[in-house]
Amino acid sequence: xxxxxxxxxxxxxxxxxxxxxxxxYVPAKKSGNLVYTSGHICALGDKSFKGKMGRDIDTExxxxxxRLCVINCLxxxxxxxxxxxxxxQIIAVHGLISSDPEFTEQGVxxxxxxxxxxxxxxxxxxxxxxxxxxxxxxxDFSASVxxxxxxx
Length: 152
Known about the structure:
Blueprint: H1 3-10, E1 28-31, E2 34-37, E3 40-41, E4 43-44, E5 47-48, H2 59-81, E6 87-98, H3 106-121, E7 128-134, E8 143-151
Parallel strand pairs: 6-7
Antiparallel strand pairs: 1-2, 2-8, 3-8, 4-5, 6-8
């Protein structure tokens, strides 16, 4: 087991099997020394977050939602690369947050993703970031996150 997967296990996290995409795209793609993930939703096993932030879901649950999105992104990277130990740094984290029009804490919600990556990868987990509120996401999911990572 890789060092990162061992750390995930110590955190009580098991990476999911990667689901088959619902459309004509791949979950992750490598170009040079970068891996780009597709947007991953906030569902894992029997846990999912649906609805709008600020109306159906509060900020604290929103942080858990973006964390789940990142866990799914990491599962796609592992499927593509065979191990997460190849990740040398997290370059960028981009989040789309399905938000009530009055909700303005998208950045706070994205801290769930960012804090998790820094906890897992240390200094190599620090990254650039986008947090955008949008009207809706497919299947009423509350968040979608995609990553750009550098690999060895």
